[in-house]
Each structure stands twice: as structure tokens, then as C-alpha cells.
Amino acid sequence: MESRVETEGGRPGREGDRSWPRRRLLVGSLAGSLVLGGLLLWLLTGPAERRAPASAPGAQAHTAVRTGVAAALSDLAVLIDERRARVREHPRDARSWAVLGAAYVEQGRRTADAAVHYPEAERALRTSLKVAPRGNAQAMDGLAALAVARRDFRAARAWAEAARRAAPRRWTTYPLLIDAYTGLGDLRKARAALARLQELRSGPAVMARAAGVYRDMGWREDAAAALSDAAAGASTPAERAAWLERAGQLAWERGDREAALRHFREAVRLDPDLRAAQAGQGRALAALGRMPEALTAYQVALARQPLPQYALELGELYESLGLTQPARAQYDLLRERVRRDAAGGVNAELLMGLFEADHGDPVVAVRQLRAEWRRQPGIAVADALGWALHRAGRHREALRYAVIATDKARRGTVRSAPYAYHRGMIERQLKREGPARRYLEEALRINPYFSPLHARTARTALAALGEPSVRDLPEELS
């Protein structure tokens, strides 16, 4: 056997072997061929094959919940199992408790099982704070995310601002601040939080967050472009599906049924568990007149993620088709799910106020929404309270809130067909025919299919108003 020796300078050689230079040349040539072959393979394969191997499911979900992006349900389950095992062995691991809590928040959001997962999330996050009470921004972020999921925007603001004080450069806090400020109707602070977020971070999650703020400011084209960029830069199928679902929502809001359906379908293909995209397909298919497919899409979404909002939409679709009994069944499901979600701390006053205004007792709706307005005076609450007051016969007071939701000078920068419709109907009841016509036309221009029930009413009311008369013109033109 040949013995190895160290040559001068530490280079390996072989004692008494003059063929070593030739062998080294042969090995070098072989290695070069392998490298060249690998390079050619890399160039000939597609982009998906060139990417680095995917990380383990638990690691993918960990990254997702840490950065506030969507995670696949199966990956979340793996992460939760891993962290539960970890905290059983290391009960003072504050970081693992915080990750576990954030994962439960995402699981509750994705499954609509708030009654189970949100209390679990709160226990884990508060345990993290108990173990590490000082400077634990990760647990504070988790509690802010939980409060957003529960629609408790005051609590979300408090936790997110505490997290910002603890770690001012922690970028994941700023999306939570944007959600909290938006829910409380403070759009100036929401925009400031976005500006700070963009200073600290770039990438798909930030683009998607910017799109939400742009949408609330009425900048639809900017919002659509930001979501397109976010989807293109997504690192996992679940994340890409989430951004496509939001792009579908944006397309739907502007009445582009075909584009909305394309986005929703691609989102479902990438993440079959994304029920928001499944319900979005139902919305777009109904607008296209494909009712059997629309009903099936809603039913599939509700079977796996029984959100009250989906039950309301499906009930109204049934009602528009004259199917009274199936509609009532969906409204019963809505009430049941709202009661169940309340056990998980979810605030459904906004949804229930709109439901009562249209399908129940408007006086109850007014009472619910007045309380909600005092707690968190966001734009959506202003619109809903104005509509409930109108339905309860209090039209002049209703107009005050409808103006907040639709007048740019009063924070109402969102271009929303339902908001414009509500204001148009209130103006019509007050015999203000010019503004009534203007807002009803705007609602149908923004999205002619915004509701299977109310879009039809808007067209009927607009036709009854007839053509504008001279008295509707501004004084300088009459």
C-alpha cells in the first residue's frame, strides 16, 4: 500500500510515485467535466428545477408565521406538532411558545375554527410573555395578530405599539400596526406605518401589504401592480396563492369577473385548502351567470372553512334565485357560526349588523353598530351604521355616516360599489335625486355585479329616477 506524506508547504504527495502528476491531471479533468456537465444541466432545466431544495414543512411554516405570510395547512400541522413537543421538554423556551401561538392563530384563520385555536393561541402567547416578560416582541406580535384575527383593533394597536417600543426595527410589527390603524379608521397612521415598513424591508410580503393600503386610498392600479409583483416573488405555493387570492378580490371589486375568476382558480390550484379563493370563485361564477358552478364553489368553501361571511353570501345568492328555504338555512348557519366564533373571542358585530339590517331587525342592527362605532370607528363600520340607520327609517342621520364612508374629505377614499350603493339609496330616500343618481351610477360603474340582491335593486332605483333634470345641474350650468 502506498503511504501518504506531506510535501513541503503542506501539499499532499505520494512517496516513490512519479505518476502522481498525471493522476492529478486526470482527476482534475474528470472534476472539470462533472462541473461543466452540471452547469449544462442547470442551464437546460427549467426555473423550478434550478431552485434550492425546499426546506422541511415545519421550517417552511415557521418562516411563514414569523413573517406574517400564508402557510399551507399541512405544514402548519407539522410545525404545531414540533413546537408542542419542544415546549413539553423545554417549558421555559419563550421563543417556541411564541411560534406555537402564532401558528395557532394562522391555523384558526385558515380553518375558521376560532373557538378551538384562538384560545390555544392566547395561552401559548401569554405563556411566552410569562416566561420572558421583558422585550418579548415576538409574543407581542403574536398577540397583535390574534387581536386582528378577532377584529379587536384596539387590542391589536396596543400590542403592536408595545412590540414596536420593544424592538423598533422589527419589521414584522408594522403590518400589524397597519391592520390596527385601518380598523380604527386612522388611515394617516396606517400610511405612516407602511412608509416605515418599506424603509425596513422589501419583498413580496411588503408589496402585498402596500397593496392593501393603496386599495384603501383608492389607488387601484397601484394596488393591482403591487399584488402582481408580490405573487411573482412568492417563495412558496401557499404564499403565491394568498397573493393571487387578494388580486382576485381586487379584480372582483372593480367588476372584472373573468380576471377575478382566473386569479381565484390559480390560487386554488396552488393551495387547494385556500377556501377564500374557493368562495371567490363562487362570487365570480355567479356574476358570470354560471349558477350551478357558483353554488358548488360556495358549498365546497363552507364545508372546510365555514366562515359566516360565506354563509351570508351563499344565502343571498339563494335568495336572488328565489330559493327561500336554502337561503334561510344559510342564515341559520351564519348565526350558529357567529355564536361559535364568539367563544374564541371573535367580534362579529360588523357582519351581524349588516345581516340584521338586510335580513333581520334593523333596530337591532343600529344598536350593534353604534356600539361598534364607539369601539373602533373604521370606514366599514361607518358604512354599515349608515345603512342600518337608513333601513331603520332614520335617513338624515344615516347620511352623516354614509358621507364618512364615501367622501374623500371625510376619510372615504375606498372605491367601493356597496358603499356607493348605500349612499345612493339614502340620498334617494331624502329626495336628493342628483346625488342619488350619481352614487347609484357610481356603484354600478365600479362593479355592476357587486351583490346578487342589491345590484338589481340599484338598477331598478336608477331607472325610476330617470334622466337628470335641469334642477339637478350645478347653478352655473342651469
Helix fraction by DSSP (H/I, runs of at least 4): over 70%
Query: What gross morphology would you assign?
Result: globular
Q: Give the class from helix and strand content and strand pairing.
A: mainly alpha
CATH superfamily of the domain at 348-472: Tetratricopeptide repeat domain
What fold name goes in the CATH topology slot of the domain at 348-472?
Answer: Serine Threonine Protein Phosphatase 5, Tetratricopeptide repeat
Beta-strand percentage range: under 5%
Query: How many strand units?
Result: 2
**Number of H/I helices:** 25
Using the coordinates above, name the CATH class of the domain at 348-472: Mainly Alpha
Major sheet size, sense and barrel closure: 2 strands, antiparallel
CATH structural architecture of the domain at 348-472: Alpha Horseshoe
Average residue pLDDT: 89
Order of helices and strands: EEHHHHHHHHHHHHHHHHHHHHHHHHH
Q: What Rg is obtained from the alpha carbons, in whole angstroms?
A: 28 Å
Distance between the termini: 110 Å
Strand neighbour order, sheet with most strands: 1-2
Low-confidence blocks of residues: 1-53
